[in-house]
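It is worth pausing here to work through a concrete case rather than discussing structure prediction in the abstract. The textbook approach is simple: state the sequence, then state the predicted structure, then interpret. We follow exactly that order.
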Amino acid sequence: MAREQRIDEASVDVEVAWEERAQAEQAIADAEAATAAAIERLVAEKLTVKDIVQLTGLDQATVRRLRQLVAGEDTGEDAGRPAAAGIQVA
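Step two, the predicted structure:
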């Protein structure tokens, strides 16, 4: 009996942890989308990538990746965001 209870508790712990992971992935995707939108506002002000790097402290690769994220949304493409939604644990 005690073994079955431990197994049940561990199974629930897995489900809870996996859901928390999915929520964290969604939070990352949301934060990246907000950052990308802010970067685009800086670009609209005629700042170069180099200027944005110096201003924000982000590295050049990150700025370019986030700009592509916005470009992918504009064209309807999935720009590689984590697919947090729809993850299920049986």
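Step three, interpretation. The CA atoms of residues 15 and 46 lie 47 Å apart. The two ends are 22 Å apart (CA to CA).
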